Amino acid sequence: MLLQLHPVNPQPRLIKQIVECLKDGGIIVYPTDTIYGLGCDIGQQKAVERICKIKNVDPQKAQLSFICSDLSHLSDYTKSIDTPLYRMLKNYLPGPYTFILPSSKQVPKILQSKKATIGLRVPDNVICHQILVELNNPILSASLPGEMTEDYTDPEIIFEKFENLVDIVIDGGIGGIVPSTIVDCTTDEWTITRQGAGQWQG
To answer: Are residues 111 and 117 in contact, defined by beta-carbon separation less than 8 angstroms?
Structure first.
C-alpha cells in the first residue's frame, strides 16, 4: 500500500493507520530527514526478523538503530548518560545524526548486538515524529537494501520495488540520498564512524 502524507501537516487518519499497522507487526518504508528507511515497532520480534531477512543480515550483527521522537526514551534503552554527553545529544538532536551508545538490558533481545550498543536517531521530520508520538515506542531504523541510488529518493519507485516485501510505503515527498552522520559515543573520545548529512563539530 502506498500512502501519500502531507510533509508538513500529515493527515491524522493516515498516521493512525500506519501506527495500527506497526502495532500489528507490520513493516513500513518511511521518510526521515535524510533517506527513506525500513521500519517496524522495536517490540515486534517477527517484524524485526522480516526486516533482517529483507536486508539479508543477522539481527545480532546488523547494528540496527532506533528512531525516537525525542530524548525521553534515552534512559530506557541506554546505560547512564553523563551530563556532557546528554548536553551534546540535546544540541544535535533532532537532526541527521545516529549516535552509538551503550545499550541497557531493556533493549529487546533480538536487537542486542554482541558489542552491547545501540544506534539512536531523532530525525527532524514531521511525518516520522507524528508516527513516533502516536506509537509511543521507538521504531527500528534500517536503510533500504542495496546501493543508495536516485531510485531510493522517489517513493513511487520504492513502492514498485518493495510492495511485496513491506506493508506500507509512505510517500512524504522526494527523499535525500545522503545518510545520517554516525558518531560513536561508547568511549570518552567521541568519533565519527561515517560522515553523512550532519556536520559534526565534536
So the answer is: no
SS3 136: coil
Type of residue numbered 84:
P
Average pLDDT over residues 69-84: 83
**pLDDT band per the 50, 70, 90 thresholds, residue 19:** very high
Nine-digit cell string for 143: 536503510
**Per-residue model confidence as pLDDT tens digits over 90-104:** 999 999 999 999 887
DSSP secondary structure string, 89-122? HHHH-SSSEEEEEEB-TTS-GGG--TT-EEEEE-
- Of 141, 48, 151, 34, the closest CA to residue 94 belongs to 34
Q: Give Cβ neighbours of residue 130 (< 8 Å, ≥ 6 apart).
A: 10, 12, 15
Domains, the chain, in order of start with CATH, read: 2-194 (3.90.870.10)
Burial tier of 84 (Cβ tally within 10 Å: 0-12, 13-18, 19+):
exposed
